[in-house]
Amino acid sequence: MKKKAVIFDMDGVLVDSELVYLQMFRTFLEENECEIDEKLLYRLAGASSQRTWEIVARMWKEEITPQEMRRLYKKDHPSYEIPYKELLYSGVKDLLLWLKQEGVVAAIASSSSEESIQKMLKETRLSCFFDYYVSGKWFKNSKPDPEIYLYTLNKLGLLAEDCIVVEDSTYGIQAAKAAGLTVAAVRDTKFGLDQSMADYLIDQTCDLKGLLEHMTDE
User: I need a labelling partner for 114 at 20 to 30 A (CA). Which of 46, 47, 160, 216 fits?
Assistant: First the structure.
């Protein structure tokens, strides 16, 4: 195996959760009689928390700061449940099991909160497959800033050339490339994401196995 570690994004890579997030914000805006810009709404895919509230605030019915927008949303929706178990992509467990058998380290570097990552791992029972996870909330700037990936590399004690990242969003791909990493992007068919900076495109996350085997044979 040429790569010693695989670093996964979470939403849109391990679990099909991005459309759920979008629908939550769409419903909230509709309930408050806001005009929804679908193109703008789709930019929430892969966005950091800060960028998310900036985007939602732009669709609010009156001028509002991203911070005020966040407080207002949290007041009306203090908590929400994402059914991670139901949203787990097909073949992900088999891929992770294969990586573990091959001695390849698996990590998560996600813009989602630590609580969301932990909840996803618990509900999908994937905790045993991951050696480490990193939340973008730990940093001042999340993706496309490369800090999350540079931090992950440091924690894993590996060089960028030893790892491959699985991403889907434009921001995530930009962050990984800025950190010097090889990127396999899960092909986007929903949001019109720019994935041109990725080194490889795969149709499904589980297709990473074939890609890594091919890289080994080269």
Answer: 160
Q: Is the peptide bond before 144 cis (omega within 30 degrees of 0)?
A: yes
pLDDT, one tens digit for every residue, the chain (218 residues): 689 999 999 999 999 999 998 999 999 999 999 999 999 999 888 787 888 999 999 999 999 999 999 999 988 776 678 899 999 999 999 999 999 999 999 999 998 889 999 999 999 999 999 999 999 889 988 889 999 999 999 999 999 999 999 999 999 999 999 999 999 999 999 888 999 999 999 999 999 999 999 887 65
Tokens coding 127: 């905790």
Q: Which residue among 9, 11, 168, 207 is the active-site one? A: 9
Distance (Å, whole) CA 16 – CA 89: 6
Which token pair is 104?
């390849």
Sheet holding 132-135, edge to edge: 132-135, 105-110, 5-8, 163-167, 182-186, 200-202
Residues 129, 113: Cα–Cα separation, whole Å? 19
Catalytic residue check, 9: yes
Helices (H), the chain: 18-31, 38-41, 49-58, 66-76, 84-87, 92-101, 114-124, 147-156, 170-178, 208-217
39, 73 contact by CB (below 8 A): no
